[in-house]
Specification:
The structure is a homodimer.
Chain A: E1 2-7, H1 11-22, H2 24-31, E2 35-41, E3 55-56, H3 59-63, E4 68-73, H4 81-90, E5 94-97, H5 100-116, E6 121-122, H6 134-138, E7 146-152, H7 155-167, H8 171-180, H9 189-192, H10 195-209, E8 219-220, H11 228-236, E9 239-250, E10 253-264, E11 276-283, E12 287-294, H12 298-314, E13 338-339, E14 341-346, H13 350-356, E15 359-363, E16 369-374, E17 377-378, H14 379-386, E18 392-398
Parallel strand pairs in A: 1-2, 1-4, 2-3, 4-5, 5-6, 8-10, 10-18
Antiparallel strand pairs in A: 7-9, 7-11, 9-10, 11-12, 13-17, 14-16, 14-18, 15-16
Helix pairs in contact in A: 1-12, 4-5, 5-10, 7-8
Chain lengths: 399, 399
């Protein structure tokens, strides 16, 4: 019998408790042992809740109970989750988390502490919600030099962009709708400015390189400037507009960024809609693979946490492989990466763009605007040129 | 230092040798130990080949060498691969295979022998080529009761169907082209009749249920009857025609089948084209997930074998979890499953179909045919009705 403590009885935490209960027998049959939730740590009481009797307010009860071998940290935020996780690991209790912020800030340190104490720090649920990605990267893709990762890693922005594309609605209206439906926070900044996706690509880039990529070093641009006409142009070109979190290897350098991209109809990420997420990776041997699923949601995310719990149960006193050292990776300048760009300008500046860019095609949607797709060029070269042109309406990268 | 023997220096086997060589350092960094190919078993000599010195013709050299801890079986076919694998496992040597035929025929028996001898029998490459699917099912999806699997599991047929859809070419011409390009065998039966996909869904259904699903019990239909007009209808409905390997849970019963299906534009399998494969699964907690990538090809398939080798290296003397017992699962009758059907009949029989089916819509492509999409009904009910109608031209299931 494996006894587990769940920290935080919120959305994900209650999902973990539910799955361990509802799917108890199938989990036991695959693990070869029963799992039981013994404690749930929360500041609140839950009178009348089925699991009322498991609620504790004092973390020491969990820490000092030698029966607890695995702790699920589903609290979110860096504090006190960081201290709680560290304390558990130092006692040899494995920790399974959905907390991307903590993983991004302290992942390699906590992995190291786990190793030194004969237990594991696992974080499948921290990126891509229910989508298996961390474990596949550490196992299935272990033979690969990963060349590139492109991820739709934020459900809120993908919901907003999908709605805007489908309904021709504008950003503000769709954001409001998303907030009413509970898909966006009241303060949506972390999602719409690309910070959430940025933390996640920092984690994936770290696994890709084996070193530590910091979110602070990831260039992030959000979706707030995308307007309804951008979608009309995109449709005309058979493309979708997606917030892409990207990490690339160019020579010996890695770059990482988050920004809106236009994605061609042939690309598997083109059809990833609504709250679904996907991670598209390119390995040097394997070629392209994609992992698709629900990037958030109570039970999907909780399922990923439970898969980690099962892994810990199967690997007592054994290190579950994850190469992520504390050594910091200095990212290369994203402005050196090359791509095509879609550009919209006021018709009056048409002459200027036509002179400056070797462009592949122009696209007409209105009389007052001129739009084109550039040839392949570095970000630096593009920014240089675009900043010297008057009356630029907007521009979006192509992938 | 881990020493490996590769059985069969063909496409996949030489890919395994190449990856272990080319990506030696990244693999060693993730495994924490070097891997080296010590022997390659093949009937042929390879004069001038870089690895000429590693070729052996006598399997006993490998079996009797205590340095060999892992054997990659990339020979294909049941014999002598079955005996070779069994002999290795009985000596405590783990076996990693790409051989779906052997896995389908003797998987659970070989897993059991491995367990009894402190080693592992792994087969990631046997389904979906380079796509991580076996390991994710055994680990990431361990908390789930899987309700349904839909897979595009055969690259040859998907290549043919994609070409037919894109170019309006007929089956015979595209098959010939695929043969010339090396994407289809001279005798294409195993692919085009759905047998290859059938073996693969038998393996996935076994992992889904934990028992043994036999290929012989999987209902299979191929793609040879799909004609160019079917694609015109499909296009008019915004659908794609794909050969789908499906396993479903209905109540306490499981069913499995392979057949062409029309897939809606919103479904992620709709855009899986060419030689790409994908497996779409529905879990009771996780919802829908999809794994996408190259379903065949030398290096993609070899990468999956190498991922198993790394797993064996990381788990010496430790069982890598896989729930697949020798107990046979009796499948339910696929004719009890429900779905919609697309039907084409000669215009003369229009009255008959209209009377027999509660149909949702009719689709016009030619003057001489009548086509419709039925409401949801059981396969049995549909077959009953369709067999009583004269001049049926063709019909295809909807997914």
């Amino acid at each position: 019998m494996i006894k587990v403590a769940v920290l935080g009885y919120g959305t994900v935490g209650s999902g973990v408790v539910q799955i361990l209960d509802d799917n108890n027998s199938v989990i036991a049959s695959r693990l070869g042992e029963d799992i039981e939730v013994k404690y749930i740590l929360d500041l609140r009481d839950f009178p009348g809740d089925k699991n009322e009797g498991k609620i504790v307010h004092d973390y020491n009860v969990i820490l000092e109970d030698p029966e607890i071998g695995i702790v699920c940290e589903t609290m979110g935020g860096v504090n006190p989750a960081y201290q709680f996780s560290k304390d558990a690991l130092l006692k040899g209790k494995s920790v399974c988390t959905s907390n991307k912020e903590l993983v991004e800030n302290h992942g390699p340190e906590l992995i190291k502490i786990a190793r030194e104490n004969g237990c594991n720090y696992l974080f499948e649920a921290s990126v891509g919600g229910g989508i298996p990605i961390i474990r596949p990267m550490n196992t299935s893709l272990a033979p690969e030099n990963i060349q590139k990762i492109m991820g739709i890693l934020n459900g809120t922005t993908n919901f907003i962009l999908t709605k805007m594309a489908g309904e021709g609605a504008n950003y503000d209206d769709v954001l409001k709708q998303a907030q009413e439906m509970g898909y966006a926070e009241r303060n949506p900044e972390a999602d719409v400015e690309g910070y959430d996706a940025g933390r996640k690509i920092a984690i994936l880039s770290s696994l890709m390189t084996g070193k530590t990529v910091k979110f602070a070093d990831v260039h992030t641009e959000g979706i707030t400037k995308i307007d309804t006409l951008d979608f009309e142009y995109a449709k005309k070109m058979g493309k979708a507009i997606k917030l892409i979190a990207m990490a690339e290897k160019n020579g010996d350098e890695y770059t990482a960024m988050v920004a809106p991209f236009m994605i061609g109809a042939d690309h598997p990420l083109n059809g990833v809609n609504g709250v679904f997420n996907a991670i598209y990776l390119t390995g040097d041997m394997l070629g392209d693979v994609m992992f698709y699923g629900q990037g958030a949601g109570k039970l999907a995310t909780a399922s990923a946490v439970v898969s980690d719990v099962i892994d810990c149960g199967r690997n007592k006193n054994k290190e579950i492989p994850c190469v992520w050292s504390e050594e910091k990776l200095t990212l290369g300048d994203y402005k050196k990466t090359e791509r095509q760009f879609f550009v919209r300008i006021d018709m009056r500046s048409r002459g200027q763009v036509v002179n400056k860019f070797s462009y592949l095609k122009s696209i007409e949607v209105t009389d007052t605007e001129f739009a084109l797709v550039t040839g392949k060029m570095t970000e630096a070269d593009f920014l240089d040129k675009i900043n010297s042109i008057d009356n630029v309406i907007s521009w979006i990268r192509l992938a």
